[in-house]
Amino acid sequence: MYKNVSIRYALDWTTVFFYVVLVVMGWISIYGASYNFDQASIFDFSQRAGKQFIWIITAFAIGGALLLIDSKMYNIFAYFIYAGTILLLIITIFVAHDIKGSRSWLVLGPISFQPEEIAKMATALALAKFMSSYNYKLKNWKDLLPLSFIIFGPALIIVLQNETGGALVFLAFLLVLYREGMNGIVLLIGSFAVLLFITIIKLSIIPIQVDRGTLGMILGMSFILFVEIGYAIFFGKNQKEALILLAGTFVIGLVSYFINIGFYLNYNYVAIFTVLASCIYWIVIEIFKRYKRYWMLALFSFSSVLFCFSADYLFEKVLEPHQQVRIRVLLNMENAPLGAGYNVNQSKIAIGSGGFWGKGFLNGTQTKLKYVPEQDTDFIFCTVGEEHGFWGSTLVLFFYWLLLMRILRIAERQRDQFSRVYGYCVASIFFFHLTINIGMVLGIMPVIGIPLPFFSYGGSSLWGFTILLFILLRLDAARLERLR
Amino acid sequence: MINDTLQSRRYVIAIIMSAVIVVYILRLFTIQVIDTKYKNGADSNAFLKKTLFPPRGLIYDRNHKLLVYNKPAFDIALIMREIHDLDTISFCKALNIDKQFFINRIEEIKDYKKNPSYSSYTPQLFMTQLGIEEIATIQQSMYKYPGFYIQNRTLREYAFPTAAHVLGNIGEVSQSRIDNDDYYKQGDFAGRDGIEYTYEEQLRGEKGVEILLRDAKGRIKGKYENGKDDIAPKAGQNLTLTLDVQLQQLAEKLLTGKVGSVVAIEPSTGEILAMASSPTFDPSILVGRQRSKNYMQLVNDETKPLINRATQAQYSPGSAFKPLQALVFQQMGGITENTMFACNGPESSPVKCTHHHGSPVSLLNAIEQSCNPYFWNAFKTTIEKNGYGKKNEIFRNTYDDWARRVKLFGLGSKFTDSDIYEQARGYIPTQKFYNRVYRGVTGWRAITIRSLAIGQGEVLVTPLQLANVMAAIANQGYYITPHLNKCDSMLKNIHQCGIDKKYFPIVFEGMSGVFEDGTARASRIEGLDMCGKTGTAENSHGKDHSIFVGFAPRDNPKIAIAVIVENAGFGATYAAPIFSLLVEQYIKGKIARTELRDRITNLVTNSNVQER
């Protein structure tokens, strides 16, 4: 029961409009970033702007071609595309040349290509197909395993290519899972872990009374107790438990303070002792009073304590030295305007110098002087900030917001789950890139080298994002083909 | 609608996304509108990192004589945007260049294809490696030429015009080296060839950085926070070589007008005392701006002065192979020191003898008189000692055993634990090689490979390997890998040669006899017992190569030497006197036979060799 609908009629032209606006703005920014005053036109193909023009034209062609493919094909071939991409990613590790330590670029004649850009699309398709399959239930443990494989398999291979930034993008799919029924607590716990991590890393170096504990550990434990009390107040049987906990903490704190006048007592251990005592308290209540779910609170607190202890270890042993430095710079722990903090510092200066109205097109001196590294790829937003100022940057962000909202709307109006999940994947991936890239340039996210969609110079990222978006547009156009 | 109880979550997601964008807009507002810190930053807080180049490590000889040091040099850089009202004619005059050069150079700098990192805002190199004389005129009037700057660098300077091949030189780094090592940037200099290359990481030191502030127009406003974050350059480490510069200079002098090489090694340490290759050149001609011109001349010279013949040229050792053969034959049980063979002089077959002496000959006399038939017979006896066996298998295995033992002396492969950069492998054929050449395992017998017996045929050695064989014999059975850096860690590279001590006295006796009543009688030194062996290697390029190897004194040897003079003739005529003079210089500290020295120095065997 299908009817034929002309793609011209069914296509969501609003999205196409936002897409074209962003791509053209990006192109102009690249021209600005690599412009040298005594230099050629925007169409000079030996320059980056000229090359980007070629990428843009080919991207339009690819987008157009994708619209002509029957929408059912994406569903049917989702797993094949996924398997092929995995294979390509693995081959890349062995075939690729080493570029600045990463093995993620395939070189085919004049074209260099990063398969990870395709991997996002392939993973989105496979995820959509898996989650829309008949028997699938997110709560089902048996389905969770293949689900994690679909998402984190490609990410793992990309880590092996030494492209950690590219692999992190796959975290964006958690947002899709949330929309499709994953317990929201996962996101909350994730945020809480980030909060604890930052607290421990940043404040562990601040001592209390010279050698009697560190601010980081004590604050971390306080956060845990705070969550416990909040839980007890809002979800507990009555408010008595919260009061007992508060009083207990207060008493322990007071006692340890007095002990410390005469003896030596490390407050870190007092804080940990308090949290562990609270865990025991919850378990006792669970057992004797049969209040449900208190064991989960105990488990949460206990794992949080473990996490606090391993945060330092994670930081120093799991992260590479340059990644550690980037995080320290972000947390203002490293004052190195010329070392690790150089890029971010320069990018902030470039953006800040733009002021409200900007210096005007092609007049950005900070970027022209090549102070900002990677100014036409990862740090492209600097050029926007410097040359077009606050209003220009806001306009760009506004268009991204319009695009994101439009994609969410498209996703929600789909009649089959496959298309909806895919739509959310597209929105989440764009959102993640946007958040990390612009956050990095503004100095509120660590330096992770991932491109700004449609803006950063480069064929494979532009193609990747175009493919991602136009498949969604094709799926969306097909919704009118189905009769109810 | 599909069943969906999670409708409300769409709003949560939309809110999260919107919130991030709002936060970013607020952040932009803070940076760009509220906070003035960054605005001023762009006006006066832009950093210019200026690289400070460290002085390269100095190089000394074994007696702490300074060989290589640094002299200041200057680059002239320009920032295109800052150039205005330039008086081109006076500028060119001050730099002693013509106007056309100036115009061409500016065009090259602006050309994106030749200079991809060009920006009219950043310093670009206009001229590099100018000497202090060349810069003197312009230095005082620099203020007249806004946009031009002088940058300091250092150049190599050589105390002696010697050892060009050992020392190597310094040149601009190649793109592949920049890609492989983060230390280098475009336009940096690094060691090429020789010691400068092998010990690049020690010698180069660490670059420093000076942080300057610039305004948006590129003007330098002074140091950032009074140089708080500046990093001083760390000078490179000095290097002491094993060379004895006096011996080195004598060796090069004696090779004047000839093509060939000399390697001298201290046997007890493996330290290379001299390593000369002729034709050679003054290392200072490859420094500074005349480098590329001179380098091209050296490349185009037919006598190939850039090749280090001491380590890269391969020769048949000829009779110089015989002392080693005598040891290996005894060790393998083919002969004893009492074995005698008949010699019919020039009528001998299949290997002729070029000398006239009595018959039958003993091992001692065979070494002394360099008797070819003796060594052929001994070789045959040795590799046929177990017979041939089915499909020659036993014979071939015996042959391989011989080849393996010869290789234990450091032949047939590079010294991988040495610090000598350019080495040829040399060649000791294996049975595989002969199986291929003679089409099958039964295609060859002892008679087929008879020239090996006297160091001709397929066997190839480098002068360095030959000198090392002498050091191993002088040490009675082991050698320390020959090396150039005088340090203790190199002394650990000890290699045993698998020859019992009891086989050495007869060889020492024979080699000593070479000077007493053998082939090198004319080159003996009064009151010094030396061991040596002449060699006259046939080759396809003309006259025979004249070879001499040996060590001295006979007891407690202090120096082992190999000398090769290409296409000169008999070993005794050319190479032996050079050996003798070098020994005299090293052991006695001076040359008494000045007449002999001058005569050898003035001998010309190849008229194409030019002095550089």
Description:
The complex is a heterodimer of chains A (484) and B (612). With 484 residues, chain A is mainly alpha-helical. Chain A contains 20 helices and 2 strands. Chain A has 2 domains: 304 residues, no CATH class; 122 residues. Chain A is globular, with a radius of gyration of 26 Å. Chain B has 612 residues and is α+β, with helices and mostly antiparallel strands. The radius of gyration of chain B is 33 Å and the shape is elongated. Chains A and B meet through helix 9, helix 16, helix 17, helix 18 and helix 19 of A and helix 1, helix 2, strand 1 and strand 8 of B.
Biggest β-sheet description of chain B: 5 strands, mixed
Per the CATH scheme, the topology name of the largest domain in chain B is Beta-lactamase
Give the radius of gyration of chain A. Answer: 26 Å
Task: Write down the overall mean pLDDT of chain B.
Answer: 87
List SSEs of chain A in N-to-C order. Answer: HHHHHEEHHHHHHHHHHHHHHH
What are the SSEs and their pairings?
The complex is a heterodimer of chains A (484) and B (612).
Chain A: H1 7-10, H2 13-34, H3 48-68, H4 71-76, H5 78-95, E1 106-108, E2 111-113, H6 116-131, H7 141-160, H8 164-168, H9 173-179, H10 184-203, H11 215-235, H12 240-262, H13 267-289, H14 294-318, H15 321-330, H16 342-352, H17 365-368, H18 380-412, H19 417-441, H20 459-478
Antiparallel strand pairs in A: 1-2
Chain B: H1 9-34, H2 37-44, E1 46-52, E2 59-60, E3 66-78, H3 88-95, H4 99-110, E4 124-130, H5 132-140, E5 148-158, H6 164-167, E6 169-172, H7 175-180, E7 189-192, H8 194-198, H9 200-204, E8 208-214, E9 220-223, E10 239-240, H10 245-254, E11 260-266, E12 271-278, H11 291-300, H12 309-312, H13 322-331, E13 340-341, E14 361-362, H14 363-369, H15 372-383, H16 393-407, H17 431-437, H18 463-474, E15 478-480, E16 494-496, H19 504-516, E17 531-537, E18 545-552, E19 559-565, H20 575-588, H21 594-602
Parallel strand pairs in B: 2-10
Antiparallel strand pairs in B: 1-8, 2-3, 3-4, 3-5, 6-7, 8-9, 11-12, 11-19, 13-14, 15-16, 17-18, 18-19
Helix pairs in contact in B: 10-20, 13-15, 14-19
